[in-house]
Amino acid sequence: MEKNDGLTLLSFLEPETKASSILVIESVQYLPALRKMFPKASLYAVAADEDTARTPEMEGIGVHWETLDYRETVLPFPRKFFDFVLSERMLENVANPQDIASGIGTFIKDTGCLLTSFENVRYWRALQELMDGHYYAIVRRRYAKPEFERLLYASFYKDVFFAPVRKPCDDGTVERLVAAGFENRLGDLDTEVWLVQATRSALSVAALKTEHTPEERKMLATLLRRIEYDIDMAENVAALWVLADEAGFAADYLARFAAEIVVHGEAFLAALKTASPEERLAVVDAMAEAVYGRQ
Question: pTM for the complete prediction?
Answer without folding.
Answer: 0.78
